[in-house]
């Protein structure tokens, strides 16, 4: 008999807490690009963008040259469906991007690559790889063993550096009962379930992370990136999926 997913996630969390083999991952010296999608389950135009982000999980270079992230915003919740993955902090992050690009407008679906608006999704060719950065910025390495994580950056830290860490979920599914997507079943990958932002005053920093959240996802990943306190655009990023017997959709 196949064990239920909730039991598997419980056992995985228990193994991490019990001091199992640490999860270690790093970027190369060249910049790993963050591809950020700002989306909402309450937005009728968002499911195609969600599917596009899902498709990136099958592309060459995942986690080594690019990392997809799906930030669910809360500013559409008022139209009838409260997105379970939405956070005011994610909406604020998108608004901060709008500010640094001299714009007073946020919208969904909205894509940013390395903090720069990417409108290629709305074009026929969708040449997203042409927007990836491969400049040499330094190596970001992360070691996680519950509840402690250590991040090290071999390169020049930006002024007022910040370390961002995010738990992400893949293989999530929602049955929408109200709002613009009423009656639809939506699938999501690379959803940011939890995001933490803290100062990084030196090239090595140790932090305490909570256990991976259990939102019913089939896969769980950890992503880290460096930015500045005054500028959310990522300088370098690294990420990995936690061990699992399941696969990316």
Automatic annotation (TrEMBL):
<dbReference type="InterPro" id="IPR036249">
    <property type="entry name" value="Thioredoxin-like_sf"/>
</dbReference>
<feature type="signal peptide">
    <location>
        <begin position="1"/>
        <end position="18"/>
    </location>
</feature>
<keyword id="KW-0732">Signal</keyword>
<dbReference type="Pfam" id="PF06764">
    <property type="entry name" value="DUF1223"/>
</dbReference>
<feature type="region of interest" description="Disordered">
    <location>
        <begin position="227"/>
        <end position="249"/>
    </location>
</feature>
<dbReference type="InterPro" id="IPR010634">
    <property type="entry name" value="DUF1223"/>
</dbReference>
<protein>
    <submittedName>
        <fullName>Secreted protein</fullName>
    </submittedName>
</protein>
């Amino acid at each position: 008999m196949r064990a239920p997913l909730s039991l598997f996630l419980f056992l995985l969390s228990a193994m991490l807490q019990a001091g199992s083999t640490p999860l270690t991952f790093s970027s190369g010296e060249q910049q790993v690009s963050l591809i950020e999608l700002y989306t909402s389950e309450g937005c009728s135009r968002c499911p195609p963008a969600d599917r596009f982000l899902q498709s990136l999980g099958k592309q060459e270079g995942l986690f080594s040259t690019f990392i997809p992230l799906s930030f669910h915003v809360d500013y559409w919740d008022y139209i009838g469906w409260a997105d379970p993955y939405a956070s005011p902090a994610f909406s604020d992050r998108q608004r901060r991007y709008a500010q640094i690009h001299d714009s007073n407008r946020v919208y969904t679906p909205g894509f940013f690559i390395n903090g720069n608006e990417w409108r290629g999704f709305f074009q026929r060719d969708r040449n997203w790889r042409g927007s990836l950065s491969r400049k040499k910025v330094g190596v970001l390495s992360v070691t996680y063993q519950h509840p402690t994580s250590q991040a090290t950056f071999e390169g020049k830290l930006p002024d007022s550096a910040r370390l961002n860490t995010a738990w992400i979920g893949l293989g999530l599914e929602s049955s929408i009962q109200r709002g613009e997507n009423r009656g639809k079943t939506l699938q999501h990958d690379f959803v940011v379930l939890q995001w933490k932002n803290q100062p990084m005053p030196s090239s090595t920093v140790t932090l305490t992370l909570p256990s991976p959240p259990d939102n019913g996802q089939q896969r769980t990943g950890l992503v880290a990136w460096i930015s500045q306190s005054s500028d959310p655009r990522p300088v370098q990023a690294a990420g990995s999926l936690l061990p699992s017997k399941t696969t990316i959709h």
